[in-house]
């Protein structure tokens, strides 16, 4: 392969020699500013026939992202994502929340002592994650939200 080394393009700088041969040189620049990453976490105990908020209202302003849920308890749980678009939406389960929060997708079931990754690509303004169980109590449920620009 011919490599260009002129003012139009310095392809030579895109490659480097390593012990296994020629490798493509990659440069990454993390965006660790508060505008670049939304991170939230929550831990809760789910009880039968009640909704437990794992992560309350988070402002995404159009970012896609992923939920990571760890159910270290002994009972299967159901996890639901909710979204709101109204400016200044109330927290999930606050008075009047039913008017502004809508369920997104289907319930994700997470078995006891199991984990689940729930990605989403749609653009939401606010999101919340809740859990419920119809059987026994499930202690030790942890949830994490990561969303990037």
Can you walk me through this structure?
This protein has 149 residues and is mainly β. It has a single domain, classed as Jelly Rolls (Sandwich), CATH 2.60.120. The protein contains no helices and twelve strands. The protein has strands spanning 5-6, 9-10, 15-18, 21-24, 37-46, 52-59, 64-71, 77-84, 102-110, 114-120, 126-132, 138-148. The strands form four sheets. The chain has a four-stranded antiparallel β-sheet, with no helix packed on it. Strands 6-11-8-9 form a four-stranded antiparallel β-sheet, with no helix packed on it.
CATH architecture: Sandwich
Q: Terminal Cα separation, in Å?
A: 36 Å
Which oligomerization state do the chains in this entry correspond to?
single chain
Biggest sheet statistics: 4 strands, antiparallel
- DSSP helix fraction: under 10%
| Strand residue content | over 45%
Strand order of the largest sheet: 5-12-7-10
What count of helical segments does DSSP give? 0
Please indicate the count of domains: 1
CATH classification class: Mainly Beta
Task: Enter the CATH topology name.
Answer: Jelly Rolls
Mean pLDDT: 81
The shape is flat
Order of helices and strands: EEEEEEEEEEEE
